[in-house]
Design goal:
By secondary structure, this protein is mostly helical. The chain has two domains: 89 residues; 47 residues, no CATH class. It contains seven helices and no strands. Helix 3 runs antiparallel to helix 4 and helix 3 runs parallel beside helix 5. The chain is elongated, with a radius of gyration of 30 Å. 21% of the residues are buried.
């Protein structure tokens, strides 16, 4: 090979890759997936990750790995968020127990919407559900 042939040969261009930045949506996808915010950040991270992958495929930007990591971490933290909220709903939420197996959540919700007359916590509430109107029941 002569010297003129090696000078004209086109090699890989690393200059354009060094100046090209990672996609910001991919970066935010990973950040929001890590900071899960009770599951909302996880969902936002997953959606941004898919959107970033689509945009990166079209524009050729860097950050496909970040977007994939945002999706994976978002799915994992979403599972943790679902387990967390299920634990909270089962063990902490619902107030007093009505003995119906729901931990009082149904009774508390009915009491909040309809009023205390329908609640098991009200003295006449159970009588009304058995067919005796609460206004005719006498207090012991």
């Amino acid at each position: 090979m002569s010297r003129s042939q090696t000078e004209t040969r086109a090699g890989p261009s690393y200059a354009s890759q060094a100046t090209q930045r990672a996609n910001k949506m991919a970066i935010w996808s990973l950040i929001l997936s890590i900071v899960w915010l009770g599951g909302i950040g996880s969902l936002a991270g997953i959606m941004l990750g898919f959107s970033a992958r689509r945009r990166i495929a079209g524009t050729g930007q860097r950050g496909a790995g970040l977007a994939t990591a945002g999706i994976v971490v978002g799915l994992i933290t979403l599972l943790f968020a679902i387990a967390y909220w299920a634990f909270i709903a089962r063990h902490i939420g619902g107030g007093g127990g009505a003995g119906n197996g729901h931990g009082g959540a149904v009774t508390a919700a009915a009491s909040a919407i309809i009023g205390p007359r329908w609640s098991a916590h009200h003295p006449a509430g159970n009588l009304y559900r058995r067919g005796t109107p609460a206004w005719t029941a006498t207090a012991p």
